[in-house]
Each structure stands twice: as C-alpha cells, then as structure tokens.
Amino acid sequence: MEAAIVSGLQGLLLGLSHLGWGHVVMIAIGSLLLYLGIAKGFEPLLLLPIGFGAILVNIPLAGLMEKGGVLRFFYDTGVLTEIFPILIFIGIGAMTDFQPLFENPKIMLLGAAGQFGIFLTLLLALALGFDKLEAVAIGIIGACDGPTAIYVTSKYAPHLLGAVSVAAYSYMSLVPLIQPPIMRLLTTEKERKIVMGTVKQPVSKTVKILFPVVVTVAASLVAPLGTPLIGMVMLGNLMKECGAVERLKKASENEIANIVTLLLGLCIGATMEAAKFLRVETLMVLVLGLIAIGLDTAVGILFGKLMCLLTGGRINPLIGAAGISAFPMSARVVQVEGQKYNKKSYLLMHAMSANAGGQIGSIIAAAIMLSALAGMGIV
Amino acid sequence: MDIWTFGWSVALIGMGGTLLVLWLLSLLILVLKMVFPYKAENSASDKG
C-alpha cells in the first residue's frame, strides 16, 4: 500500500523531474509570444496559438507531438499536406480588395521590386552555409507573407518551419518599426515631399470578376508549381467579387480562415520543441528574416526612385516601401511617413496600390521560385 | 550544380520573372479596363 502511494506520487513528479532548462526557455518564449499578441496586439490571431502551442509542446512527457499526439495529428494532416496554408489563401483572397491596383496598375511593379529581398537573402543564406532548400525557405521570409512562407517551408525545409514562421509573422507586425529608418536613409527630403495626384478611377464589375480568372491562368502558365497558391487566392477573390456565392465567401473569410488559423498557429508552435528550436541556426534564420524584409523595403524604395526619375518626379519614392505583402500596414506606414514631411501629401491610395501589388507579387515570386527549382531538378 | 550557380540562377530568374509577370498583369488590367470600361449605369449593379 505505502509503496503504491509512493510510486503514484513519484508519477506526479515525473514531469517536473524531466523539466530541462531548454523547456523552461521555450515556455518563456511561448509566453513572450502570448504577451506580444495579447498585450501589444502584434498579430494576435497567430501569435496566441503559436505561443500556446510552443508552451504545450515543451511540457515534458505530454507527448503532444509524439506519434498519436493531438498536435502531431494536426501537423501531419494539415501542415505536411499543405492543406492549412492553402485553405488560408482562400480566406485571404476573399478578404482582399484589388481596387487600388485597378486604379493604378503600373504601381504594381513596385510589388515586384518589394520581393527582391527574397532572392538576395537566399544568396546570403547560401553564403552562411545553409543548404539550397533551407536557403529557399529562409529567403521566403522576405515575401512578408505568412502563409506563403509556411507553404514553401513545410514543403522543402519542414525542420525550419517554427523559426521561419515566427520570423515571418513577427517581422510583419514590426513593419512600422523596421521600415521608417530605411525610408529616411534612402530618400531625400525633397523626394519625401512629393505630392502625388489623385487616381480615382472606377472599375467595372466585369473587370473585377475577370481579373482573378485571368491572373490564375496567366500566372499559372508561367509558374505551374505556384498554381495552388495563386489559384486559391484568386478563387477566394472571385467569390468575393462575383457576389453570387455570398455564403461561401463569408465561410471562407470567417469560419474556414478562423479554424485554420487556430490549428495552423498551434502546429507552428508545436514545431518549437526545445531540442529543435534552441540552436544557433534558429538565431541565424531570425536575423536573415529581418535582413530580408529590410532588403525588400530598400529595393522597393530604390525602384520607386527610378520610377520617380522616369516620370519626371511625379512618383514619391516612399510608396516603394509598400511593395511588400504586409497589407495594409505597410501602406499606412508610408502615409504616416509622407505626412511627416508634407502635410498636403496623401500617399495612402498610391501606397495601397503598391501594397496590393506586393500581395500578388509575393505569391508570384514564390511560384516562380518553385517552378525554377523544379526546372533545375532541385525539387 | 554548385551553390553559387544555383543561388544566382534562382535570384535572376526570380527577380526578372516576378517583374515580368507583374508587368504583364498590369498590362492585362489595362486591357480589361479598355475592353470592359466602367459605365455609370454599372454602379447600381455593382452594389447588388
């Protein structure tokens, strides 16, 4: 009897006796993510489940990521199969309004320049000794687009999923801190004061309906491996614009997006086990991710300066910073920065055009990269 | 293929390809807007 009680009590202490410093650090990191999401409002929809998932997976002997564990089940069925990011894309498409892009299509080019950080960071990652597919996954943080980063990383470097996802979502929420110093560094005060004219051009409903279909066909023909990404975003957008499937549109932007966001967040957190996450390579991924977004911003602004030159000074180079996928946060940063130097300057709509271009650009860049890898026989 | 041939090839194809595709898409938008111009009477159906 006494022996049974002692054994039972020892069982209660098993978790504590297996608790290592790595678990404690990871529980602290998970708690920090919770704090950033709840108290600071940084991407709470993602950081909360990621933070909690990180805590859960670092409880010794809980076995949530072991074979048969609940998080392992979600991870295997949703992340490894790429189903979760794909479903998120439908929701993103259903929530995205491409109207600013229709009003000023040439600004879309800034959305391409805003992706160059992906490829420059890929080169940096290779220089630092990461293998080819790891470098691809790290570079994709520069897409500034969480689902795209998760899609590519889960496909080609799943062991980096935790670090890449945390970097992608953390830096997206830190865009208001990351971008302004780069904007000031690369532009003159005269450029920052440029006032851009208004571009209010109504667009017919037919154009809005045809756009997702045309983009899907055209972009998928160029980069077939990106069809799941492009196709799902455009499917969501078609449901939004056609007005014929209101229930499906609402389900995509609410129920589906919410459920998948929760499960995806938990799964990302579940990849943050101490033994796998607390490595020098994680720190390197986080630093390279920050560099990627900085490079995106820098190249976008430089491209904006080129467009300013070519148009005789009619384009404010600051809007180049909005050529990333962080929508509409980046456009708002541009507006705030522009107003600091010229109270009569209203850059928001122009920056929104660049930002919408960045949303498409990030998916196109990933699609082209995947197709290039396939062409080279790497994947 | 060595890592630098790989890296620079992906970078050049990626940057050039992204720029080219987005430029084509911007042209497609212009064509769509020309073929299906906005008409004032569209506004009622747009709201519906």
> What proportion of the residues of chain A is helical, as a percent range?
over 70%
The DSSP helix count of chain B reads 2
| Mean pLDDT metric of chain A | 93
Strand percent estimate of chain A = under 5%
Gyration radius of chain B, rounded: 20 Å
Give a written overview of the molecule.
The complex is a heterodimer of chains A (379) and B (48). Chain A starts with a helix and ends with a helix. Chain A has 379 residues and is mainly α. Chain A is built from 21 helices and no strands. Chain A is globular. Chain B has 48 residues and is mainly alpha-helical. Chain B has helices spanning 3-35, 42-47. The N and C termini of chain B lie far apart (56 Å). The model of chain B has no long low-confidence stretch (mean pLDDT 86). Classes of the chains: A mainly alpha (379), B mainly alpha (48). The interface between A and B is large, with 47 and 36 residues.
Show the helix and strand layout.
The complex is a heterodimer of chains A (379) and B (48).
Chain A: H1 2-12, H2 14-17, H3 21-38, H4 44-57, H5 70-79, H6 83-95, H7 99-103, H8 108-113, H9 116-127, H10 132-139, H11 146-156, H12 161-173, H13 175-186, H14 189-192, H15 205-222, H16 227-242, H17 246-270, H18 274-277, H19 280-310, H20 329-341, H21 348-376
Chain B: H1 3-35, H2 42-47
Throw out a few tags for this protein:
heterodimer; A: 379 residues; mainly alpha; 21 helices; 73% helix; globular; B: 48 residues; 0% strand; rod-shaped
Short description:
The complex is a heterodimer of chains A (379) and B (48). Chain A is mostly helical. Chain A is built from 21 helices and no strands.
